[in-house]
Amino acid sequence: METVVSGIRSTGNLHLGNYFGAVKNFLKMQEENKCFFFIADYHSLTTHPRPDNLHANIKQVLAEYLACGIDPEIATIFIQSDVPEVTELYLLLNMVAYVGELERTTSFKEKIRKHPDNINAGLLTYPVLMAADIIIHRANKVPVGKDQEQHLEMTRRFARRFNTLYEVNYFPEPDAYNFGNELVKIPGLDGAGKMGKSEGNGIFLTDEPSVIRKKVMSAVTDSGPTLPGQEPSEPVKNLFTIMKVVSEPSTVEYFTNQHASCQIRYGDLKKQLAEDIIKVTDPIRNRANGILADNKYLAKVVREGGERARESASKTIRDVREIIGYKQF
Ligand code: TRP
Questions:
Q1: By Cβ atoms counted within 10 A, which residue in 93, 110, 155, 194 is the most buried?
Q2: Which atom of ligand 1 is nearest the CA belonging to 43?
Q3: How confident is the model at residue 184 (pLDDT cuts 50, 70, 90)?
């Protein structure tokens, strides 16, 4: 059995991008692999959440994970900060990560551009912590969206460097994984880039149907095709991309043909798209609300998951300390 690790930062509700980029793959993988799915609450600290909402954020993502169908009986679900061993491996891996490569990471450069007032060292070493999350369970596969590809490449590099430095073959080099051939990137509704949490761009799994309809209806499009067979513009292509993951193939085909023959009415496409999104999100939203109210269940899930994750993590730390040369007096 192969080992799978993946995590999602607890910085707000899950959106369609998280679902189709990551969680949906978790569901398929949990059946056939040894899976560790966690909530990356240490990673969420880079953006300085307040003490009075940190816990609620974690709880929300946990409830949504479970509502999506991750099964705590077969997969290990845990909170990152319940497994402090990961911070030790993070420190140790910092010794094989070079400042230059961390500074060149795309996600870091983007953060600098967007938040020049909060360039903390935790952001710089974010990929090192992520690598520790993954290799502490000696994972082989990591289901993530396309935006995480570079972080996975760095994880492999750190694992390889550790192996080379200590002349061992201890850490496997994990791969980013998706059931299709390609990693999925779900675009946002504002016409450019991936789906995120910003206003008017993302659809959350817990959005009420009325909210989803409103968001989709106000998604950016264009003034319509003028030549038969014309390539759709970026914002319209984005709507088709979302449609491909939520709608029936025949629906996609219908609107594709409508576009190609210049007969398309974007209002109709959006109405259909909204309804097909709601079909995916509505059962999840209902279940999440029920689970959120069941504190006893949530407590049991994280206690048992935390124990299993710690067991696996502490074994790795024992091995790693020995490899590095720590000995008992
Ligand atoms: N960086 C990931 C994201 O933003 C979250 C994450 C943290 C993660 N640690 C991980 C994903 C380990 C996979 C494996 O989505």
A1: 155
A2: 7
A3: confident
